[in-house]
Design goal:
The protein is 67% helix and 6% strand. With 300 residues, the protein is an alpha+beta fold. The chain has one domain. The protein has a four-stranded mixed β-sheet, with helices on both faces. Helix 2 (42-58) runs antiparallel to helix 7 (151-178) and helix 8 packs parallel to helix 11 (284-299).
Length: 300
Amino acid sequence: MARTRYAPDHGLTRRMVLTMFLIGLLYVVFVGVLIAALGDAWPLVIVLVGGLFVAQFWFSDRIAAFSMGAREVTPEQAPELHGAVDRLCALADMPKPRVAIADSDVPNAFATGRSQHKSLVCVTTGLLRRLEPEELEGVLAHELSHVAHRDVAVMTVAAFLGVLAGLITRMALWTGLFGRAGRNNNQNVLLLLIPLISAVVYVISFLLTRLLSRYRELSADRTGALLTGRPAALASALTKVSGQMSRIPTRDLRQAEPFNAFFFAPALSPGASLGRLFSSHPTLEQRLDRLAKLSSQLGG
């Protein structure tokens, strides 16, 4: 991993390695069951899984930008935004990512990409309208921390594998139940077990990514605030963004909810639950408490 001036987080590194190992092991078992159930069709499974994985990993930044309706902007089009990114990249001694803006009133930001040299940082128009320059810089430092630590790449892969479980199951059911005949009893039993195994794989993947996501947000808060030296500015941005979510139309929030694991702050529609077990982010109180302690340490 390329070195930057972002403070290293060995706890995050250990969790990323463990998460990818467990999810990888899970999917080796899952694909093995599919190969046994599909018989001669197993090459199709390997080609589909491999092709989708490579496409998702290689084009993750473009897929995320397209899904959010984001457009890349030049320094002439967004001078203040580019100026903030330039300052932070120089401070962190890291390559500058591509910069994008999503036309959405939901105040948020995210980073994506497979490496520091192939990354993108995106902010919404709602965020730009609501934050002061120091607050915006705190949010950008948080997002660039994800890029520097490469946890955004790990989350991209982990989230994709969860979705892949359902996709492979549908393919298996169509090719197995409707496209082939003459299977033996063992193959029929395996085929009937595929939906159940897929559900188990999805649930375990979901929980593993949620555990990693909550820790990586705390890590990005800390390292981003250490880089800028202004934990209070990041805390102010968090408070402002979280407080503004209740004023966003429900339809817009629901459209943004699938991207919560990658957002700076979760976009939750009224009535949505932020249960501890299933949350993609730590609670606002926990994040603010950590930043307040960091501010006291820096002040001391």
